[in-house]
Task: inverse folding
């Protein structure tokens, strides 16, 4: 009895000193970055709480006609990223493609970090979030895509947590089961998020079966970039060199990224064409605003240029081997995709519902600029991802994937 | 092979000799196929009930509300005095920053004759509402007795998806109530207390808003909606929500 207590306390001590040791192993730059990220989160949280207390209408620029703004698009950005990370990482350790194995642990960790960041941002957008915790459970509406998305993302998060734990304990069979279940939950949740927009018959820019499909593909494309970005950063943070297996892993991720950029480009072309041909009411005006109207810079420079063409060029020219080029392409794509989400949410609402009535009140497309508070909360979301990423690199000692024989 | 000579030999019976029923059928076909050009905007000019359902009985069995509250707006009678808006705000404690009903204004400088018209809009209490479909907590729901789309404000989480879903901009977030608010045909403030009319219908000096029971064949709303000689339409029929607020002129 006494022996086992001693053993237990030795283990706890050992764990504690290991954790402290790992956390203390960072450079000055690491701590500076960690502090900056922490500050971003704190400032954003402060802004969000202040807005919650004094009323969103005093601090956010959303209106009756445009109820969803950058907080929603940032949430979409983070859950898209999270789902993409989960799906790309599952190619490795769920479906057994060996080349994708080395990125698995970090990707699962990041999928948790990004979805927590997404939840952080949306908590300040939902006007009465505590009611959501209660009534989503006791008064569910199964025709509601919002309900399905929220519930399934809860299930997804649970599976991702469990998978991460099993991966770190090297218990592979449950890790695979959780990874697979997490992927299913992620796809179901994410396509429901697409359906939140796509099933709205009153908003032609969004309406159609396209949104859920586009969201999943777009998620995987984002996942590829985020994997490249964070693995590049991680090895800089840990001051290590990538081994050949990891380099090969990033090479195939970049190649997958190339394929997915082509698919998304194809999707985007037909989305635009279908909005122009025949000038469909409610959709045509929105698409033209993207092509040569108030959103043209967003679309051509950010979505197409930075989100698709430049990363495609970088990934291709790097041949999956030049890490700096891949990193640049990844950063560019992430910025482009952030603007893609913003445009999706904003452009979809820019055509007022009574536009075709031709009334004086709704003669023009709506415009929206985020407020300071909305910007601070958005930055805090990124801060949280950065904070968790940095902490995770130290706490989990670089998410090393151990060798194990054969296929599990 | 089409025999043209047979057609040439037919005698023109004269338009005045065409029976009433045939005229009606022809008009109906015309309305169904083409719609009416009205100052630059295309409306679908058929009574919504005839276009969607084969008969009144079929409509009533699918939407068996009793009373089936409904409104007919005589758009040409509206003079934008906004007494309806004020009465609504006063009756239902609508805050200054929001509105449950509004008068939209349309200017058509090239029109022959009248160059401006006013269009009152409010919640259409749709039969296939998008808002109740998307609400995650059933904070909004269609009352199964009278068809009014209601709010249970204790459950509203403020996600504003119902505002996105509504094709008619009928909803707004009420900061005092801490929930989304919308027109409910003054159910809690007037109808459930024995009043026969909504606040806006009672306040209108021009009898623009005619409020009544669509399941009562003697009511004005029923009679207006079930005739085909004058155009009756709904706003944004393409949104597919099957509104219960109808518009007409005359």
Result:
């Amino acid at each position: 009895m006494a022996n086992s207590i001693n053993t237990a306390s030795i283990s706890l001590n050992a764990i504690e000193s290991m954790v402290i040791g790992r956390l203390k192993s960072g450079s000055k730059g690491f701590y500076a970055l960690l502090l900056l990220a922490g500050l971003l989160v704190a400032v954003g949280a402060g802004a969000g709480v202040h807005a919650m207390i004094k009323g969103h209408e005093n601090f956010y620029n959303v209106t009756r006609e445009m109820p969803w703004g950058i907080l929603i698009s940032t949430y979409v950005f983070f859950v898209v990223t999270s789902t993409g990370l989960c799906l790309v990482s599952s190619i490795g350790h769920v479906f057994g493609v060996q080349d994708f194995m080395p990125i698995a642990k970090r990707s699962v960790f990041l999928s948790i970090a990004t979805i927590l960041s997404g939840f952080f941002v949306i908590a300040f957008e939902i006007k009465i979030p505590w009611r959501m915790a209660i009534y989503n459970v006791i008064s569910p509406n199964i025709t509601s895509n919002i309900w399905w998305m929220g519930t399934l993302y809860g299930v997804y998060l649970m599976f991702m947590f469990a998978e991460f734990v099993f991966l770190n304990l090297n218990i592979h069979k449950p890790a695979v089961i959780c990874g697979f279940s997490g992927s299913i939950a992620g796809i179901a949740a994410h396509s429901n998020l697409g359906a939140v927009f796509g099933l709205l018959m009153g908003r032609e820019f969004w309406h159609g079966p396209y949104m859920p499909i586009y969201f999943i593909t777009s998620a995987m494309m984002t996942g590829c970039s985020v994997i490249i970005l964070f693995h590049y950063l991680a090895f800089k943070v840990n001051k290590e060199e990538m081994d050949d297996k990891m380099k090969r892993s990033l090479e195939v991720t970049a190649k997958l990224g190339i394929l997915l950029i082509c698919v998304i480009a194809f999707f985007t072309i037909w989305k635009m064409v279908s909005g122009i041909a025949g000038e469909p009411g409610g959709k045509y005006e929105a698409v033209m605003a993207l092509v040569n109207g108030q959103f043209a810079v967003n679309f051509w420079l950010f979505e197409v240029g930075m989100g698709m063409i430049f990363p495609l060029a970088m990934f291709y020219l790097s041949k999956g081997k030049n890490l700096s080029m891949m990193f640049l392409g990844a950063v560019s794509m992430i910025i482009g995709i952030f603007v893609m989400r913003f445009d999706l949410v904003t452009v979809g609402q820019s055509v007022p519902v009574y536009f075709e009535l031709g009334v004086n009140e709704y003669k023009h497309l709506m415009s929206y600029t985020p407020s300071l508070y909305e910007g601070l909360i958005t930055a805090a979301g990124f801060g949280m991802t950065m904070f968790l990423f940095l902490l995770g690199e130290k706490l989990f000692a670089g998410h090393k994937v151990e060798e194990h024989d054969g296929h599990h | 092979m089409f025999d043209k000579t047979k057609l040439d030999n037919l005698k023109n019976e004269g338009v005045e000799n065409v029976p009433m029923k045939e005229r009606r059928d022809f008009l109906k076909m015309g309305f169904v196929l083409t719609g009416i050009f009205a100052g630059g905007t295309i409306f679908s000019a058929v009574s919504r009930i005839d276009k969607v359902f084969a008969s009144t009985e079929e409509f009533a069995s699918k939407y068996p509300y009793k009373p089936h509250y409904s409104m007919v707006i005589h758009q040409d009678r509206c003079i934008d005095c906004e007494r309806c808006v004020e009465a609504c705000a006063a009756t239902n404690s609508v805050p200054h920053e929001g509105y449950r009903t509004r008068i939209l204004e349309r200017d058509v400088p090239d029109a022959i004759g009248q160059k401006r018209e006013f269009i009152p809009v409010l919640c259409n209490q749709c039969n296939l509402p998008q808002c109740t479909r998307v609400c995650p907590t059933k904070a909004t729901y269609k009352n199964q007795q009278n068809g009014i789309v209601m709010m249970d404000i204790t459950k509203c989480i403020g996600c504003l998806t119902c505002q996105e879903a509504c094709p008619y901009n009928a909803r707004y977030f009420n900061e005092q109530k801490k929930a989304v608010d919308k027109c409910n045909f003054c159910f809690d403030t007037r109808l459930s207390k024995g009043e026969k009319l909504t606040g806006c219908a009672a306040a209108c000096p021009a009898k623009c808003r005619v409020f009544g029971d669509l399941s009562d064949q003697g009511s004005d709303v029923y009679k207006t909606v079930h005739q085909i000689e004058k155009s009756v339409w709904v706003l944004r029929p393409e949104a597919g929500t099957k509104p219960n607020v109808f518009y007409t002129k005359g």
Remarks:
- Residues 17-92+110-125+143-148+183-248 of chain B form a domain with the Alpha-Beta Plaits fold (CATH 3.30.70.20).
